[in-house]
Amino acid sequence: MKLSKNLGMLLLAAWLFLFGLLTTPLLGISFSHSGDVLGVLAIVAGVMLIMQR
Description:
Blueprint: H1 7-23, H2 34-50
Helix pairs in contact: 1-2
């Protein structure tokens, strides 16, 4: 499997999607440690964007 050049943008899109799903009160979707998962995903996306990957 070949990693994309835009891995940072892909991770950012995933973070935005998950953040939207987990914080919308109408959907009521949540799980334990969701804040931890979103935090780690945000850090990884930020590092990848800084590294321009």
